[in-house]
């Protein structure tokens, strides 16, 4: 059975990745750029609130996803400010902040929020560990991808094909958790 899920986001890159990831779970995505208020709080708070808001607006089940890059040496900055920081400081600014920093540990986190008009939101967290490169590499993916070298690789996400990133990214991990949960919930 093919299921269709409404994905509320303004980010086309996320849609592209999520479509590729969902293929193997028999879930089809319908992209809706509804816009939702991003409250102050952690990724989980934002995903819960956004999913509840969109489910009630659209009167049906939806998912939203809130993600970010968390750099240990910068006190986990940009974190929940990732979107704003990407637009203002850009990758060059992050590299400047990391100029003489030896501990380059970082992780991407993604939280998927699922909600229906009749239920409370469910959330699914995915993370991927790695470190920050000394300069940008590659032009695949988007935003911070050219800076992030996932653990066990010597290439950034920017240098990996999207299909490869989709095999183990934070987004893959949160969406996989959601898809497995949904399949379980809807089993007869
Ligand atoms: P929506 O809220 O409309 O879904 P957004 O782009 O604002 O879209 P977020 O609030 O989740 O999404 O912001 C996350 C930001 O973190 C995003 O804009 C990128 O700058 C960065 N980011 C998230 N996932 C990423 C990834 O896989 N690769 C590179 N950067 C990523």
Write the layout of secondary structure elements.
Elements: E1 3-8, H1 12-23, E2 27-32, H2 43-58, E3 62-71, E4 77-78, H3 82-88, H4 90-97, E5 105-115, E6 122-132, E7 148-150, H5 162-168, H6 170-185
Parallel strand pairs: 1-2, 1-3
Antiparallel strand pairs: 3-4, 3-5, 5-6, 6-7
Helix pairs in contact: 1-5, 1-6, 5-6
The structure holds inosine 5'-triphosphate.
Inosine 5'-triphosphate binds at residues 9-11, 14, 65-69, 82-83, 86, 108, 141-145, 169, 171.
Tell me about this structure.
- This protein is of the alpha/beta class and 188 residues long.
- It has a single domain (3-187), classed as Maf protein (Alpha-Beta Complex), CATH 3.90.950.
- It has 6 helices and 7 strands.
- Strands 1, 2, 3, 4, 5, 6 and 7 form a 7-stranded mixed beta sheet that branches.
- 40% of the residues are buried.
Largest sheet: 7 strands, mixed
CATH class: Alpha Beta
Q: Rounded to an integer, what's the Rg over CA atoms?
A: 17 Å
Q: Which spans of ≥5 residues are poorly predicted at pLDDT below 50?
A: none
Count of helical regions: 6
Q: Approximately how much helix is present in the residues?
A: 25-40%
Order of helices and strands: EHEHEEHHEEEHH
Give the domain tally: 1
Shape: globular
Number of strands: 7
Which molecules are bound in this entry? Answer: inosine 5'-triphosphate
CATH topology: Maf protein
| SSE class | alpha/beta
The second-level CATH architecture is Alpha-Beta Complex
User: How much strand?
Assistant: 25-35%
What is the mean predicted local confidence, pLDDT?
Answer: 95
